């Protein structure tokens, strides 16, 4: 019983600690070390992303992927234009609108950017 | 300013939850709140001031990395102290100091005897811990300051469980002698007489 009581007393004494006068300075040092670590990590991830991106682009260019994509996009554009022309009523001015490949690419890019914003917002909310 | 005030009044659990979401200001508040306790604890384990600050800083950085592991089952400060205790034990292990504990114990015994004969000043926990041999001081601090079990302390020190248990037992016996209420009374009698 006395043993347990002394152990309890010892734990309580360990829990008591005086406040250090330089507590704010200590906190500032820890936070600056944390920032340094994050900056280094971000630089490392950025560097690795850059290297990966360069390798990816090199591979894409080397395998004529852009030419294949352009051909596929052209074909898709033709099909889309035909489908739109047949679906539109004859008197509607939109039916005369010629769909360029660039327009489809831009619409796609805008959709991706919008989706990116949406996902970022979702993460922030979570 | 308002956000600083909000953080200052927030509970540790809420701040830890904010840290999990990546809020570093919340973590800064936790460091301000518990920094002194963790540094004091590491010093009580036997570290000098500079080492204690290093170990405490490392402990806080580790805590930020592992904040997802803190489930709020115990006090946040206890969790921090366990991280700091293990970090300091790792240093001990690297330096192979537990292997030389036998020699240190002999020195410790001598210093205890010398201090016991003097005993003019009021003995508090810090002074009492200083009178222990290093290995006993570390083992007692790990178990009663950080709340590690004997087995956890043995694992942290990579030492046999029996060694840790005997260090804790001897350390407790010495502390009981130094911190017993009769000690204060005896000193008071000496002063009055």
Task: Tell me what you see in this structure.
The complex is a heterodimer of chains A (126) and B (193). Chain A is mainly α and 126 residues long. Chain A folds into two domains: 23-63; 66-126, no CATH class. Chain A contains four helices and no strands. Chain A is elongated and about 95 Å long. The two termini of chain A are 50 Å apart. Chain B folds into two domains: 1-95, RNA polymerase sigma factor, region 2, helix turn helix motif (Rna Polymerase Sigma Factor, Chain: A); 103-193, Orthogonal Bundle (Arc Repressor Mutant, subunit A). The longest helix of chain B is centred in the first third of the chain and has 22 residues, at 24-45. In chain B, helix 5 (76-95) runs antiparallel to helix 8 (134-145) and helix 9 packs across helix 10. Chain B is 78% helix and 0% strand. Chain B has 193 residues and is an all-alpha fold. The chains are: A mainly alpha (126), B mainly alpha (193).
Q: How are the SSEs placed, and which strands pair?
A:
The complex is a heterodimer of chains A (126) and B (193).
Chain A (H helix, E strand, L loop, with lengths): L1 H14 L7 H40 L2 H23 L13 H25 L1
Chain B lengths: L1 H8 L2 H9 L3 H22 L3 H17 L10 H20 L5 H18 L6 H6 L3 H12 L4 H8 L3 H19 L1 H12 L1
Helix pairs in contact in B: 2-3, 3-4, 3-5, 4-5, 5-8, 8-10, 9-10
Summarize the structure.
Chain A is 81% helix and 0% strand. Chain A is mainly alpha-helical and 126 residues long.
- Helix/strand order of chain B, N-terminal first: HHHHHHHHHHH
- Shape assignment of chain B: elongated
- The total of beta strands of chain A comes to 0
The chain-level structural class of chain A is: mainly alpha
Low-confidence stretches of chain A: none
Assembly type of the chains comes to heterodimer
Please identify the top-level CATH class of the largest domain in chain B: Mainly Alpha
Largest interface, by Cβ-Cβ below 8 angstroms: which chains and how many residues each?
Answer: A-B, 22 and 29 residues
State the domain count of chain B.
Answer: 2
Overall mean pLDDT of chain B: 82
Distance between the termini of chain B: 56 Å
- Counting DSSP H or I runs of 4 or more residues, the number of helices of chain A is 4
CATH superfamily of the largest domain in chain B: RNA polymerase sigma factor, region 2, helix turn helix motif
Shape by Cα distribution of chain A: elongated
Radius of gyration of chain B: 19 Å
- N→C terminal distance of chain A: 50 Å
By secondary-structure content and strand pairing, the structural class of chain B works out as mainly alpha
